[in-house]
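Before a computer can learn anything about folding, someone has to put a protein's shape into writing. The outcome of that step, for a single protein, is printed below:
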Amino acid sequence: MLMRLSHDIGLYFYDIVIARFDLWAAFGVLAQFVFGARFIVQWIASEKAEKSVIPMGFWVLSIVGGLMTMVYGFVRRDIVIILPQVLSIFIYVRNLMLIAKEAKKAKAEAEMQT
């Protein structure tokens, strides 16, 4: 039984990693790496500041990785990938809008003080 299970698991991984791997699968993997890279950017920025921060690069990588993943979902016709990305991209863009609004407000306040 264990021999059969190990054989079946081996065939499964061969199927998803080798047999079904194509250009779109490579794109999907790249999309996940871009999306995941945002956490490395956030971690480095937090370590430098010695506190938890979310830099602009986090949101840019979130949008790019999310868009890439959404494209992959459309190509693969996978609603499980598409729906969460649509909502997430909206949230990432909204965060950038709030950051821009705060920066504009801070600039106006600084100009008023001088």
Notes: The chain has a mean pLDDT of 91. Residues 23-113 form one domain.
